[in-house]
Design brief:
With 193 residues, the protein is an alpha+beta fold. 37% of the residues lie in helices and 25% in strands. It is built from three helices and eleven strands; from the N terminus they run E-H-H-E-E-E-E-E-E-E-E-E-E-H. The chain has a four-stranded mixed sheet, covered by helices on one side. A hairpin with a 2-residue loop joins strand 4 and strand 5. The longest helix has 26 residues. The protein starts with 5 loop residues before the first strand and ends in a 7-residue tail after the last helix.
Length: 193
């Protein structure tokens, strides 16, 4: 998901709608002869200004329908077996708890919208790593473009920095809990009488 299809927010729809109605009303007044004696340059300038204002308002305030908040976390699940992560388009990968060494933050490699963002990575005990589709939001002006030859899957969940950090903390706590549980299960318990 490449920061998803653009959509227009309600206040912008209202403002652009008002500009269209104003232009239509002014055009109707000109056509019926209610307004006479105006310079064609003035009429053309007024129309150009309202069209330019509508286009600028649309472009500046256009919202991206990102997979934000908890909705974006449907791609990442925690279970008794391990962490399930997207592995590409319409596929997932289960990383078992015993294979996970750490949950870290590194630059995105396979997921995204053409820009490099911080992403959650599951580091494996074998030394490799598995990238998740969960990424930290950053303003586009602060992002570096991804290399053009790199294949990207667009089902990215871009979270606010606070939510991203909370998810990272939760995954790390869950991993610590699982590791501690495995250690305790592996060591014999001594009973005192």
């Amino acid at each position: 998901m490449s920061e998803s299809p653009p959509r227009v927010t309600t206040p912008v729809k209202v403002l652009v709608g008002l500009l269209v109605v104003a232009d239509a009303g002014f055009g109707g007044a000109l056509a019926t002869g209610l307004v006479r004696g105006l310079s064609p340059w003035l009429i053309g300038g007024a129309y150009a200004a309202t069209v330019l204002a509508a286009v600028l308002i649309y472009r500046v305030s256009r919202a991206r329908d990102l997979k934000r908040g908890f909705e974006g976390l449907r791609d990442l699940t925690i279970g008794d077996e391990g962490i399930r992560l997207p592995a590409g388009t319409l596929s997932t990968r289960l990383v078992p708890w015993p294979e996970i060494a750490e949950v870290t933050v590194r630059r995105s490699a396979r997921f995204g919208d053409g820009y490099l963002r911080d992403a959650l990575w599951v580091d494996l005990v074998t030394g490799g790593g598995v990238e998740s589709s969960v990424q930290r939001y950053a303003p586009r002006s602060k992002l570096q473009p991804a290399p053009p030859e790199r294949r990207q899957f667009e089902q990215t969940a871009i979270l606010t920095p606070a939510l991203f950090d909370a998810v990272l903390d939760r995954l790390r706590k869950e991993l610590r809990h699982r590791q501690l549980h495995a250690q305790l299960r592996g060591t014999p318990r001594l009973r005192r009488h």
